[in-house]
Predict the structure.
Amino acid sequence: MSITTSSIITTIRGLIDDLLQTDGASGFQYDSDNSFKLGKEHVVAASILVYQNGTLIPATEYAYNADTNKVTITFVSSGYSLTKGDAILITFNYYERFSDSELTSYIKSNLAEFTRRSYKKTFYMSSSDEVLTLNGENPTFKEGYLIALVTAIKIDPKNIKISTRDFTFTAEENKTPSEQLDDLFMRFDLTLGILDFLDEEL
């Protein structure tokens, strides 16, 4: 079974303390522009709710553009409209630091760290955002966790600390990310594929 980036991203967010925030809210008074820029970045599009004068608007009546971070109310099918002075409230979930697409890019680029260190599998990311290997032997859940750890160290090398039954790793202030990864790979003896994390799924 392949490892999806969504499962790796969940682990990375825990390691770098970028957990889901559920208190996002932006309020507006409508004048003439039906597009409203949200007050936080890295918004989870599926979590967006839009209220007009306290009434929830159906999701079919607005659209979110992640590039502009704006919600545009269209009233495509309901027949309702916006009136000057309407109170618009938009609630949403978000992440403080990174979007899923940003973390996916980090994962993809950091798979090269395994090749650099002569790991027994060559990982790559498929077009459907699955982490696979060239030899057809898919990553294990433990390797998925290790991919998340490598990526987290490259993103935030000063704030990583993990502890399992068999292994403890703490980022050292006086070492570069590359030096920390050298330590990590050496301690796991990855050329032999020896991993002693807890037997838990991501």
Residues 141-155 form the longest helix (15 residues). DSSP finds five helices and twelve strands in the chain. The mean pLDDT is 84. Helices lie at 5-16, 100-110, 112-116, 141-155, 177-188.
